[in-house]
Amino acid sequence: MLRQSFMPEKTTTPALARELGTVDLVLFYFAGGLSLRWIATAAAAGPSTITIWIFACLCFFVPLAASVLELSSRYPQEGGLYVWTRLAFGDFSGFIAAWTYWMSNLPYFPAVLYFGAGSALFAMGKRGEHLTSNGTYYMLFALGWLTLITLLNIVGLKQGKWLNNCCSLGAWIPIAVLLILAGVFAKYHGSATNFSASSLLPHADLKNAIFWSTIFFAFGGVETGSFMGEEIKDARRTIPRALILAGILIALCYIAGTIAMLIALPNSAISGVGGFVSAIHLMCMKLGVGWLVAPVALLVVLNSVGGAATFLSSTSRLPFVAGIDRYLPPVFGHVHPRWRTPWVAIGAYGIAGMLCALLSQAGTSVRSAYNVLVSMSIITYFIPFAFLFASMIRLQREPAAEGAIRIPGGKPVAILLASVGLLTTLLTIVLSVIPPDEELNKPLAIAKVIGSTLFLVGAGVVVYYASERRQRRLNALSPDGTP
């Protein structure tokens, strides 16, 4: 039997508009799950990253996609991760899984939009050079897009999904351009990188092990669609179909994109996280097609906006279902009578993202606070995945509903894949605590990461038990409000 909550039966989720079809969801996954900045990060590390991509795909991405595929078909309700963890381990675990997920994603919004702001400067050419170190420009760019994303999603997924669909162009078109440019380089100049057996072998040292964790979690994002289960048409079948198609394309794009970049350029010429447009710029200049840089840069801007849009629209559904269950103020569970969207949860989450953007460009003391917030997100981003894989294992003991899609091979294969994903996640949590080489005070850095994580998780525990206590007190009263 699944663990039952102390609380009365959950309030029925208010009617939401089902707006997302299979094509919409594939483009949604593509816009949020394929971030071009990781291709440059991987290529900058050299050809051995190709092997790490394959390993990460097999040990994290395949288990994650398989777990989401089956769980979203078994339990297609709004909330996804929150619902699965609550069913498997109870209300407390469900709330903490959701809390750590939505909190860890807040610093992501300014980070990915600042990447887009930097890419936009390539499209401006010399006119944008003076903005390179202008903090106000980056802040306004992030605030403007977050405002638009939030408003579109409040008005409805019917409007918000078109932004996601358009932003998916910012993923696959730059990849296609990269592959074409690399093909031209290979034809006329040969490969700039020697893909020997020894170069493809990752070095077994701590520095590379830490880098592996970054590559593993470049594959995060395929879990997001399931958060909107009751806003997807025939979610029980649509989510698995979209996951399979988008998952294959995302994995191929990451691996093929890294290979293509290394064919055209030596890894020493690639600058890492912000280097995708920079690498395209170098290729275009060498081939005499400099006019391509501006349109590709604008498409990369769309890619960053798509990442922010998909995570904001999906993750905001977690506080929505927590509001329905009254672990957050009930107002978070409100649905707009006209637009049929969880408008309070969306608006609150959008405003929280804007506050993170403001903190990132404020005075020194506030910037320090922002850095602490980023440190909190390092481990807390991984905790929900541990809950997800553990829930996949635990829920195998429950019978699947009629029509639910199962992983080929049934229960044994499902447990095996989820176990591999769980071990990979736990290993990554350990690696994420280790500070980088450039960190001068390593013990302080470790204490900061662990301490800030405990603070954030502890805040979630306080919120949960305060809500539980309040609900127990209300349940102890009779309908007329007397003991």
Helix and strand layout, with pairings?
Layout: H1 22-33, H2 37-44, H3 48-74, H4 81-89, H5 91-104, H6 108-124, H7 135-155, H8 157-167, H9 169-189, H10 206-216, H11 235-264, H12 275-287, H13 293-315, H14 317-324, H15 343-360, H16 364-380, H17 383-394, H18 410-433, H19 442-475
Helix pairs in contact: 1-8, 1-11, 1-13, 2-11, 3-11, 3-17, 3-18, 4-5, 4-17, 5-16, 5-17, 5-19, 6-7, 6-13, 6-15, 7-8, 7-13, 7-15, 8-13, 9-11, 9-12, 9-13, 10-18, 12-13, 14-15, 16-19, 17-18
Description:
- The protein is mainly alpha-helical and 483 residues long.
- It contains 19 helices and no strands.
- It has helices at 22-33, 37-44, 48-74, 81-89, 91-104, 108-124, 135-155, 157-167, 169-189, 206-216, 235-264, 275-287, 293-315, 317-324, 343-360, 364-380, 383-394, 410-433, 442-475.
- The longest helix has 34 residues, at 442-475.
- The protein is globular.
- Mean pLDDT is 84; it is low at 1-13.
E-strand count? 0
Structure class: mainly alpha
Counting copies of identical and different chains, the oligomeric state is: single chain
Please state roughly what percent of the residues sit in beta strands, choosing from under 5%, 5-15%, 15-25%, 25-35%, 35-45% or over 45%.
under 5%
